[in-house]
Design brief:
243 residues, alpha+beta, 4-stranded antiparallel β-sheet, two-stranded antiparallel sheet
């Protein structure tokens, strides 16, 4: 929300006379308040509503052509009950996606080879080069991920792969991001193990991240599946073609 402050400590630095502006305008808020008289809707409620709507499969399907060409347009849903359902879901999703490092890890079965190495040489034991699925390359077993030569993760529900981000599963993004690779153009080598040890101070961070994202993927799928059908407010121009 909008704040006017003379000074504030942010990240150890002092910022004076900063002003934070809302991304949601007063007109935008009133547009939704007019649809649901008597409801105490704040800009934060509306922000979460937008996040919830953007996860709706009905919304993505109905406006697929528009979303390919322009910025998303957010409709008003038919009832206050549906509005609050999307807003509560958006808040739950937003908190989980922003604070992903604080989420619980999925209780997958971890198979350890030489588990004593976890205590004696954790940097070697948890070092990741490139994760891969078990099974054949043409027929991968996505219920099992081979993390490295010492660690295998099994019991991964296939529903976890229903959470898609920019055309790739969230799990797939972790598997691709948490691997050692060298940029061909610059020659710069990216090693997530360095980040885990030197910055996070936890050599098993890539493994923990994967387990958290498995859990987040399942929870996201559960919330998305609980969203109501996209029934639009009758006064919206977009509702004319909606049964």
């Amino acid at each position: 929300m909008s704040d006017n402050c003379n000074a504030s400590e942010i990240g150890g630095h002092e910022y004076r006379n900063y002003i934070r502006h809302d991304a949601i305008t007063d007109d935008g808020l009133n547009h939704f308040r007019e649809a649901y008289p008597g409801e105490d809707i704040t800009k934060k409620d509306l922000f979460y509503y937008v996040y919830g709507i953007l996860h709706s499969e009905d919304y993505r399907t109905r406006y697929a052509n528009n979303l390919r060409k322009e910025l998303p347009r957010i409709p008003r849903v038919a009832s206050a009950e549906d509005f609050w359902h999307f807003s509560r879901a958006g808040k739950e999703l937003g908190n989980m996606h922003v604070d992903f490092d604080k989420c619980d890890m999925y209780p997958s079965e971890l198979r350890f080879k030489y588990p004593e190495m976890a205590a004696s040489n954790p940097e070697k034991f948890y070092r990741v080069e490139k994760m891969k699925f078990a099974g054949k390359r043409q027929e991968p077993d996505k219920t099992m991920i081979i993390y490295n030569e010492y660690i295998t993760i099994s019991g991964i529900p296939l529903e976890a792969y229903n959470y898609i981000l920019n055309g790739k599963t969230a799990i797939g993004w972790v598997m691709d991001g948490q691997r050692v690779k060298t940029d061909k153009a610059s020659g710069i080598r990216n090693d997530p193990n360095d980040w885990a040890v030197e910055t996070i101070g936890n050599p098993r961070y890539p493994l923990d991240l994967l387990l958290r994202v498995i859990n987040i993927s399942l929870e996201t799928t559960r919330i998305v599946n609980s969203l109501p059908p996209l029934r639009l407010f009758y006064a919206d121009a977009t509702s004319r073609s909606v049964p």
